[in-house]
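Re: that chain you flagged

S.,

Sorry for the slow reply, it's been a week of failed gels. I finally had a moment to sit down with the sequence you sent. For the record, here it is as I used it:
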Amino acid sequence: MKVLGFVAAALVIAAPAAAKEITVKMLNKGAEGAMVFEPAFVKAAPGDTVKFVATNPGHNAQTIAGFLPAGEAEQKGAMGKDFVLKAGKPGLYGIKCLPHFSMGMVALVQVGNGPSANLAAAKAVKLSPLATKRMTAYLAQAK
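Prediction finished late last night. Pasting the structure tokens below so you have them in one place:
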């Protein structure tokens, strides 16, 4: 009987943690001002999903070209619809709302623990002035 208890305990310890879903709202107005994702910076583990909820109409969420871990494909959500980002490879995933990108509507998803291999590439991506200001603050949180 002790052997069965030991085996059961070992299986529980060895079992991977369940993936979780993190919710991000697409908002016309939030704590940081107009046209924001909230929260705009999230940490996720590989296998987690980040669900961008179309709380207000007129938004979408999509990845930013060049702002993804190596080998990850760009993804684009439909206008006014929820978008789910599956956190695959560790690294930084830049997210934007296409119609409000120039107004600084960006978010950052850090998958895994830093430092992220694509940090230098992410910092080199050209963004609008307001998007750059916001993204710089989010990148400072990625550790």
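What I noticed first: The helical segments are 2-14, 119-124, 129-141.

Talk soon,
D.
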